[in-house]
Every structure is written in C-alpha cells, then in structure tokens.
Specification:
Elements: H1 6-10, H2 18-32, H3 41-57, H4 60-76, H5 78-83, H6 85-99, E1 123-129, H7 131-136, E2 138-149, E3 163-165, E4 174-179, E5 182-187, E6 196-198, E7 210-221, E8 230-233, E9 248-254, E10 260-263, E11 266-274, H8 275-280, E12 283-287, E13 292-296, E14 306-309, E15 325-332, H9 339-351, H10 358-373
Parallel strand pairs: 1-9, 11-15
Antiparallel strand pairs: 2-7, 3-6, 4-5, 8-9, 10-11, 12-13, 14-15
Helix pairs in contact: 2-3
C-alpha cells in the first residue's frame, strides 16, 4: 500500500471531487481504525497512509502540487503543507468524532444529566437447569434483584437532585486529546462519563442513584432449551428515572446427564454390548428420552457402530422438528476365561473351518515373499 498513489490508497479516481474523496476516506478509515483492529500492525500502517492521503487530497493547494510533482513535490514544499495543516487537522478530528461515536471517539449530542440513567434498563441473570428440564420444558420460580431509581434524589445520587457540571470535561462526559492530526477521546475519569457530579450525596441511596429490590417471578421454559439460549421476560428489568422498565434476560446453562449426551437436537447414548450378542445380532431393549426402544443388532456388529432412531431426539426450541437418538455400540469382552469357556470357544472356532483362520493365508504369502529376498 505504501507504493500506491494517494488516489489508489483511497480507491478513487484522479478527477474525484472533494465529496467523493471524503466519503471514501470515511469508509476506509472506519475499516482500518485502531479501535476496530487492536494489535493489527498492518491495519495500523494502512490507517496512517489513509490519513496521509486524505490530508493531501482534501487540501486544494497540496492536491495541485501532488498532481504535478508527486510526493517529492510535497516534501520540497514542506512550508506550504505546514501552513495549511491546522485546518486539515480540525476537519479530521471532527470527522472522527462523527464516525466513531459509540466506540471510543464521538462527540454526540448529550442528554440532560438529570434525565440519564446510571445503569442499563435491560438486565441478565444466569440459570442452571437439569437435562430433563431442558428437554421437556418446565416452570421455574426465580428470585433476583433489580435496580430502581431512588425516589428521593430522582436517580441522580445527589442531595435534592442537584448536580454540578463536571469541571474536567465541562459536562461532555468525554475528554479529547490530539496527537498530530488525530483526535482521540476517552471517558472522563472524574465523572465517569456522566458529565456531572453530586455536590452532596443523597442520604437515602448514598450517592448510588438507585435502590435494589428483590422480586420473585415464575417463568415458563420451553422444550428444547439449550446452553447459551436466552429467554426474554418483558418488563421485568431495571426501572429508570422516568419509571420506564427494561427487560429481564435469562441465560441458560444445562447440566449434563449421566447417560445421554446432547449435540444440538440430537442425543447420543452408549450401549454396552457383549461380543457374543454382537456376533449373533441380538435384539436389545434400550432407553430413549420417552421410554424404551428395540435395537436389532446386525450380525457381526462392530465396536463404535451407530444405530440412528429418527425423530427420537430433542424437540427444537423454535419448533423446527425433532432431532435423532443415536445409539453407539460399546463392545464388551470377557476379562477372564475358565477352561470350560476356552474349550467352548475352541469348538466354536473349529466349526468355522478355514473361515476362522483368515490370517494364515496372508502370513503364508508374506513368508514366501520374504524367502525370495534371501535367495
């Protein structure tokens, strides 16, 4: 990017007007701004070049010199660049305050501090529920604490509701610093962004501006809820200065089950199968979420083989059908054999004849091949 022309850096044509250049600059500066690319050195370098390009092309005199002589011409006219720099810097600063309001750099029209709530009206609580409660749904009573604006001070935290403009930020809630042609802002450390402070604290709420109230409510948890899902309970959040109330959000964490393993709306269960059952292809009775199911094993079923029962999983929380139940075979072998069992296995093996010794043909061919190596 360092080798591109200023027009190429801003991705505009050489005959672009000021409005087009400004629009292109805003788009690219927002894309590569350090606040959005923390720790990205390449984005930081691009950001510097974008600003350098705009500083030149937004100034008629500098642009004229650049069009005729390139960057070398600008360097030889350093005095002219400096004489016009302050106006360009102010323009850039104002633009950034407009573009990045909301994430670290914006001078926005502020509300009256007396009307501003000191806490968000929406709130969240976490809830742990059992596996079966998530699968089948249930009703739960919850007790939680919400914030309510102090009636004595009107939620300001100040005695008689009287606030004084913050002397540090002059009521802006932000303080601004210039580094070269860049303007940065941060939350005022004195008033914490409020723009005002209490001369005397309210005795009722001790300057917090709110009281904490406990409440019990009963919520209906739908079938199929999963970890990370949120349920919104309308009008049960914090209460602001004007009496408006936010929403309560409940975020769920589902406890694991000893036997069933959930994967989205599918459910897995391991089925221990003795090797003789697998060889014969027995029919087994296995548990499901709603009762019992019959599992007919294939003759010679293998370890980790899966059997799928369609629609026997979990009902989708949004009503998009049901998942499947997947039975995973976990092969079991005897740990010890007595003489009678060994004799019976020998007899069984002999009954299969050559089929019971598949390794012999392979080993014979390998041995013959190796003999040829040493001739």
């Amino acid at each position: 990017m360092e080798h591109l022309s200023y027009y190429e850096i801003l991705e505009v044509s050489q005959n672009a007007d000021k409005t087009t250049i400004k629009k292109a600059y805003k788009k690219m500066a927002k894309k590569y701004h350090p606040d959005k690319n923390a720790g990205d050195k390449e984005a930081e370098q691009k950001f510097k070049l974008i600003n350098e390009a705009y500083q030149c092309l937004s100034d008629d005199e500098q642009r004229s010199i650049y069009d005729r002589y390139g960057k070398e011409g600008l360097q030889s006219m350093g005095g002219a660049r400096r004489s016009h720099s302050s106006a360009g810097f102010d323009d850039l600063g104002a633009m950034f305050e407009e573009m990045f309001s909301g994430f670290g750099g914006g001078r926005t029209r502020r509300q009256n501090p007396a009307d501003m709530d000191q806490y968000p009206l929406d709130m969240n609580i976490d809830m742990y529920i059992d596996f079966n409660e998530a699968v089948f749904g249930c009703e739960k009573e919850i007790e939680y604490t919400y914030k309510k604006a102090c009636e004595v001070c009107g939620g300001t935290g100040a005695k008689d509701g009287k606030l004084t403009t913050c002397p540090q930020c002059k009521g802006q809630g932000q303080i601004y610093m210039k580094q070269g042609f860049m303007t940065f802002s941060q939350t005022c450390p004195v008033c914490n962004g409020v723009g005002s402070s209490a001369t005397d604290k309210c005795k009722e709420c001790h300057g917090k501006g709110y009281e904490e109230v406990k409440e019990k409510i009963t919520i209906s948890i739908p079938k199929g809820i999963d970890s990370g899902n949120r349920l919104r309970v309308s009008g049960k959040g914090n209460i602001g200065k004007k009496g408006n109330r936010g929403d309560l959000y409940v975020t769920f964490e589902v406890k694991p089950d000893k036997h069933f393993i959930r994967d989205d709306n599918d459910v897995y269960i391991e089925i221990p199968v003795f090797f003789t059952q697998a060889i014969k292809g027995d029919t087994l009775t296995i548990p499901s979420l709603t009762g019992e199911l019959e599992l007919k094993l294939d003759v010679g079923t293998k370890d980790k083989q899966r059997y799928v029962f369609r629609g026997e999983g979990i009902e989708d929380v949004h009503g998009h059908g049901k998942g499947d139940l997947i039975a995973v075979i976990q092969m079991q072998y005897p740990k010890k054999l007595n003489h009678e069992q060994i004799a019976l296995l020998d007899k069984l093996q002999d009954s299969f004849g050559v089929e019971s010794k598949p390794h012999e043909g392979i080993l014979d061919s390998v041995i013959d091949k190796m003999k040829n190596w040493f001739k």
